Each structure stands twice: as C-alpha cells, then as structure tokens.
Amino acid sequence: SVPLTYFSGIGGASKKGILIKGANYLEALTGVREVVFDKTGTLTKGEFAVKEVYPAKGHTREEVLQAAACAEADSSHPIARSVLQAYGKEPCARTGYEEIPGHGVKAQTIGGVIIAGNAKLMAREGVAHEETQESGTVLYVAKDRDFLGSVLIADQVKPDAHSAVEELRKIGIGTAMLTGDAQSIGRAIARQVGVDEAYCELLPQDKVEALERIQGQKGSAAFVGDGINDAPVLARADVGIAMGGAGSDAAIEAADIVLMTDEPSSVPQAVSISRKTRRIVW
Ligand code: ADP
Ligand code: MG
C-alpha cells in the first residue's frame, strides 16, 4: 500500500511538467544514487544542423550531400532531418532501405547502394574512409563501397544541462552520460555538461550493459533518454525517465516518469519532490 501523501507529491510534480506514472516510482526516486543521461536529445537539443561538407578526392560537395540525403530520406533520426534540410531538394528514388541502430542507414537506389553513418558503419561495410576529426558528429557517406566524403553535423547542449548536473551533485547524486556517438564528440559534450563519466560508441544493447555496470558499482540508477533505442535501457533502470516533448512514443511508453519540459533540470526537481514527499510520509 502506498501512503496517500505520495499522490500529492505526484500532483505537485505534474504542475511542473513532471508526469509520474505511479506512486511507487516517486518512492523509487528517493533511493536513486546515480542519474545516467543519454546524450542526443537529452543533454543536447537533438537539433542537428549541417556545418560542413568534405568531399573525398574526385567527388563534389553536391554529390556527397545528394547521396547522404538519398540514404537518409526514410530515417526519422535528427541527423537525417538535418541532412535533408541542408540538401533542400527532393531526394532520389529508393528501392530498399535499412536503418542500422547505432551505425547509420543503408539505401538501395538505381545508382547503387548508399550508406551513411559513423566510422563503425564504414568498418562494418568494408569502406576505407578518411577520418574527419571535428568538434561535431561526422556522417561518412559511401556509394557501392566508394567513399564519397563526410558531412559535419553540429548539435547544441541544452542551456540547463550543466546546472542540472550541478544540482544533482549538490544533493549527493552522481552522473554519467551514454552515447552511440564517437569518443571525440562524446567526451567534448561530457566535459561541457560536467558529468562524472562518459561512455561512448555504444550500440543500443551496450547501453543496457553500461547501465547494469553502473548499477553494480553505484546502486540504484535512473536513466534519462528520448529515443526509440532507449526503451530497453529505460525498462532496465531503477527509474526510467523519458523526454516527453521530443521523445519517441516507445521511450514515453517504457518510462516511469515523463518530463514534458524536455529539460534535464526537471530531474533534480523530481528527486527533490520525492525526498520532500518521503519526509512528509515519515
Ligand atoms: P545517442 O546515443 O547519442 O542518442 P543514437 O543511438 O541515436 O545516438 O545514434 C548513435 C550514432 O549512430 C549516431 O551518433 C550516428 O553516428 C549513428 N546513427 C544513428 N542513426 C543514424 C542515421 N539515421 N544516420 C546516420 N547516422 C546515424
Ligand atoms: Mg538517443
């Protein structure tokens, strides 16, 4: 049985845009030792914009962007939206399409098979590419295993991400960040935000393992995410928290708590509400 006071805690939280699906989750929140954040769309805005196109020798910017747009045309990933926006034209016709989680996309076209994604995707598909060392997410593009070039895409850290991490630290909670993105960009974002630890280049299943390792070391852990691939991690967390505005339906469904504001600072707020509620119960 759950003390009635928990329901007033839930009511107070909902006024701040923090939707708690049950009193037991508010109670579970009081015991959380570590908050684990996903990067894209959670600590960052998830609004990517194309910054630069680097054609490989013998190729043009237009060719790279056109191929990238064609490959990304059927993806709903924020990276895909930014590429289509930068291209600004109707992408070429596709006869087949595959999304490879944590890697990128692959599309069959009349002109050949186009792949667009990270270095891991290029390795998996046996494409020799030139690494681009940049302060953003890099999309490598190849057609029929011929490396066409890369596209530099930048995201922005949410304005309250750093203060959210600080607030958690003040109330004795550690923080970590998980991402499928490359080490270079993952570490840069982690440093900006101030999280204690960063785990990069993770596939969706690796995120579950990373969370379990953190739980083993630190104890009860909340996970905050927004993506379709985040549902298994949200389910495995002691408290699963989803971004409600920009979050995928699968993430919102799998979560115990939904943040309608999409603001990381709602997390320390929710913990504080849970602790206050517990004091009243006692
Ligand atoms: P995060 O872990 O930061 O939330 P995702 O799991 O969505 O990111 O994706 C991890 C990585 O996989 C991305 O950084 C990107 O390199 C690659 N990726 C995923 N989806 C796509 C896509 N549609 N196009 C290109 N690359 C993608
Ligand atoms: Mg994500």
UniProtKB/TrEMBL annotation:
It is found in: Cell membrane; Membrane. It comes from the Bacteria. Its main location: membrane. Keywords: ATP-binding, Cadmium, Cell membrane, Membrane, Metal-binding, Nucleotide-binding, Translocase, Transmembrane, Transmembrane helix. Belongs to the cation transport ATPase (P-type) (TC 3.A.3) family. Type IB subfamily. This is Cd(2+)-exporting ATPase. The chain holds residues 356 to 637 of 685 of the full protein.
